[in-house]
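Query structure, 287 tokens:
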């Protein structure tokens, strides 16, 4: 490939070549190709270790350089591969949990790191998640995506503390099939909903409604499960959203459950700035 190929193209080509090597019929040829690749990786790893050692020897002068290298996606990935990343895996896991904690708290829950062994993080979910099993599913999605972003080298994840909803709230849930999601930062130029307000947002082609309930931002797909119509023109009162088309009501703090029928909105994970951060900090949603 061209020397100026972007990292994404290089990674894609690497995966294609790896698959072709694995598919070689001749076992000796396959073994030689794999050994060649491993030797090249080891050679570059040794060079990276020497570079990082020289930067660290520069002490204060090298701290800024090392931090900048770690923030570069392509370089940071190489540092992770060779166990040279300047921030420990545990610290990065804790950072990931800190970013997702506001969303956890908005659903009445929390998460703690119990331990990290062999690259596997043991987490404990806490709280009732407002008594909603679907809410717990969105919490786990938010945690996983935060860890994928901050600690892609994590070998595994174990979650303890299954949160059961109170029996009185046990209702069948109508949900869309699970889909692959990614975090998207909302356009800061578009105002967020004020207290008690509801606003429509289009995020990468996905229609969402954002609600500010008691100072907490919540996000849902802009589709009523009862009539299939849009929700953004509905009335929001004390956390209850009434569909403008069919008048069905949904309790937003309880993950969009309908108190009148076995229906539920599709919640969308949302991460908002924590207390003490700038008011115009980035708000992200997983779509």
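Result returned for the query:
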């Amino acid at each position: 490939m061209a020397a100026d190929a972007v990292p994404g193209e290089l990674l894609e080509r690497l995966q294609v070549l790896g698959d072709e090597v694995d598919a070689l019929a001749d076992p000796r040829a396959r073994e030689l190709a794999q050994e060649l690749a491993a030797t090249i990786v080891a050679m570059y790893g040794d060079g990276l270790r020497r570079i990082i050692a020289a930067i660290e020897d520069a002490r204060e002068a090298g701290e800024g350089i090392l931090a900048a290298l770690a923030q570069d996606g392509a370089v940071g990935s190489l540092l992770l591969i060779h166990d040279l990343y300047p921030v420990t895996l545990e610290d990065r896991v804790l950072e990931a949990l800190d970013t997702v904690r506001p969303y956890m708290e908005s659903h009445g829950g929390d998460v703690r790191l119990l331990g990290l062994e062999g690259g596997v993080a043991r987490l404990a979910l806490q709280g009732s998640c407002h008594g909603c099993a679907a809410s717990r599913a969105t919490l786990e999605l938010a945690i996983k995506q935060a860890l994928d972003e901050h600690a892609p080298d994590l070998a595994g994840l174990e979650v303890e503390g299954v949160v059961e909803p109170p029996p009185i709230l046990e209702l069948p849930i109508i949900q869309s099939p699970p889909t692959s999601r990614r975090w998207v930062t909302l356009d800061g130029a578009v105002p967020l909903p004020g207290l008690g307000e509801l606003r429509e947002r289009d995020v990468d082609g996905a229609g969402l409604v954002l609600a500010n309930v008691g100072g907490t931002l919540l996000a849902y797909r802009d589709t009523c499960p009862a009539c299939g119509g849009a929700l953004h023109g509905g009335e929001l009162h004390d956390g209850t959203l009434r569909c403008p088309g069919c008048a069905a009501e949904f309790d937003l703090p309880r993950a969009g459950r309908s108190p009148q029928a076995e229906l539920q909105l599709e919640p969308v994970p949302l991460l908002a700035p924590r207390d003490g951060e700038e008011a115009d900090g980035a708000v992200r949603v997983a779509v």
